[in-house]
Write a structure and sequence with these properties.
With about 500 residues, the chain is mainly alpha-helical. Among the domains are: about 55-65 and about 90-285, Lysozyme (Orthogonal Bundle), CATH 1.10.530; about 370-490, Membrane-bound Lytic Murein Transglycosylase D, Chain A, CATH 3.10.350. About 40% of the residues lie in helices and about 5% in strands. It has 18 helices and eight strands. The strands form three sheets. Strands 1-2-3 form a three-stranded antiparallel sheet. Strands 5-4-7 form a three-stranded antiparallel sheet, with no helix packed on it. A two-stranded antiparallel ribbon has the order 6-8. α7 crosses α8, α8 crosses α10 (about 265-280) and α17 (about 455-465) packs across α18 (about 470-475). Mean pLDDT is about 80; it is low at about 1-90 and about 415-445.
């Protein structure tokens, strides 16, 4: 049920162990020169965070024909680069502060651009902005860092969402690019990010990070490991950068990033990332002090087996709904997508308790529904708009083949936590305005009943042998009001 992302990343190997291994290796090589090297992927000492995430069917698809290669070393054609990634010579246990871990993996040497100094000045003159940026990044930065690190990419890439979205998962551009990594709809779908009424994978930090890194890895391969060109292509599109390179070659000019004729935003894009990286590397140099970020998982992944309402999880676990929404921004509605992904991100500190609480919620109670009786003049479109859902969702929920509905027909409607609160508030206001005495209420204590799935006012009146009008009067509701599972009603005659 629970996938924990809180195990050590790479364990340090002691000097004695290394010495013993070296001596053993010499004996083995002397006896059999054809012994194969141990597969690093199967060595528990070399397991990284991905070992503890069960992607299942939710793993974003890589670009067609550009799947990542195996862990065996591969031959890469040498080419002039402005960026030469440095080899990683540290272990993750060396750092308590995540910033130190990121700094140690820097691999993008500075390019020659006047815009680097411009952005260093811009960032250093706005300490409040930097602090807000770090605060927003904290829930997501550890996961992004690990994913970048395990792919052997320059660690500055973990800062790229600061340039793209300022670490705002709900950020949207004028070009309809969305999320931390700013995917447009078509590119998002190409890299496996599902988008529908319930869910937008571009806002899902877990899914979109892997898709973005798949895309960046593909671009790096396309441009022979030149990260300046890869990053420029992420901003402007690989076709744009490739055409600019061809134009320069035809003119006998260099085809590196700083020599290309590109739009102003793309010309400034890489310098902006380098400037921010420089400030994170040595904030004191720029008169800044940045908050520490713990080098440990902020969230864990809980696997679900069905749709669940976020409000139900909040009620069962006492987690504020805003925290659930902050870690699960991909879910656009009050509940997870009925077709998946079936997972929730929750704070690592409480993941075990949350997993147990969710496991204890009966399947029938994981999404709360209400009943609506069709009235004269109703249409599916009007009913859907009234309840903040789509016609297609309403049809799917009620297994309707067409949009035709009949008067007094019962419809099942997903009932969000916020909507239920607003309805209850509206009922209270209506009741206070219509202060009427009800002589049919006896002096005895009422019997309180709990509405079950499938109940209607009509079925309840029959079950408890009361009239529909009595049920309505006793509970100060209207005959067409929605009922939801778990709602309490009073019966005064029994």
């Amino acid at each position: 049920m629970l996938n924990l992302d809180c195990t050590p990343m790479i364990k340090s190997v002691s000097k004695n162990t290394l010495l013993a291994l070296l001596i053993s290796g010499l004996f083995i090589l002397g006896g059999c020169a054809t012994t194969k090297e141990k597969n690093a992927d199967n060595d528990p000492e070399n397991r990284t965070l991905s070992s503890y995430f069960d992607y299942g069917d939710d793993e974003p698809a890589a670009s067609s024909g550009n799947d990542r290669q195996s862990s065996e070393p591969r031959e890469v054609r040498a080419a002039p680069r402005e960026y030469q990634p440095k080899p990683v010579t540290y272990t993750t246990e060396d750092y308590h502060d995540l910033w130190d871990r990121i700094r140690a993996g820097y691999g993008l040497p500075t390019i020659q651009s006047k815009h680097i100094a411009e952005y260093e000045k811009w960032y250093s003159s706005r300490p409040e902005y930097i602090e807000r940026l770090i605060k927003r990044s904290t829930p997501y930065l550890y996961y992004i860092t690990v994913q970048v690190e395990q792919r052997g990419m320059p660690m500055e890439i973990a800062l790229l969402p600061a340039i793209e979205s300022a670490y705002k998962p709900h950020a949207i551009s004028s070009a309809k690019a969305v999320g931390l990594w700013q995917f447009i709809p078509a590119t998002g779908r190409h890299y496996g990010l599902k988008q529908n009424w319930w869910y937008d994978g571009r806002k899902d930090v877990y899914a979109s990070t892997n898709s973005a890194l798949d895309y960046l890895e593909k671009l790096s391969n396309d441009f022979n490991g030149d990260w300046a060109l890869a990053l420029a292509s992420y901003n402007a599109g690989e076709g744009t950068v490739s055409r600019a390179m061809k134009a320069n070659k035809r003119a006998g000019k260099p085809s590196n990033y700083t020599s290309l004729k590109l739009r102003s935003e793309t010309v400034r894009y890489v310098p902006k990332l380098i400037a921010l990286s420089n400030i994170i590397k040595d904030p004191e140099k720029y008169g800044l002090k940045i908050s520490s970020v713990p080098n440990r998982p902020y969230f864990d992944v809980i696997r679900l087996n069905s749709q669940i309402e976020l409000g139900v999880v909040a009620d069962a676990t006492n987690i504020p709904i805003k925290e659930l929404e902050m870690l699960n921004p991909g879910f656009k509605r009050w509940a997870t997508d009925p077709a998946g992904p079936h997972r929730l991100l929750v704070a690592a500190s409480s993941s075990e308790a949350v997993a147990d609480a969710i496991a204890g919620i009966p399947q029938k109670d994981r999404v709360r529904w209400a009943h609506y009786k069709v009235r004269k003049g109703d249409t599916l479109g009007a009913i859907a708009r009234r309840h903040g859902i789509t016609v297609s969702s309403l049809k799917k929920t009620n297994n309707l083949k067409s949009s035709r509905i009949n008067i007094n027909q019962d419809l099942l409607i997903p009932l969000s936590r916020n909507y239920r609160k607003s309805k209850n508030t509206q009922k209270t206001v209506t009741a206070s305005r219509n202060k009427t005495s009800d002589s049919s209420i006896s002096k005895q204590k009422p019997k309180v009943i709990s509405v079950r799935n499938g109940d209607t006012l009509w079925s309840l009146s029959k079950r408890y042998k009361v009239t529909l009008n009595e049920l309505v009067k006793w509970n100060k509701i209207n005959t067409n009001d929605l009922l939801f599972s778990g709602q309490k009603l009073k019966i005064w005659r029994y």
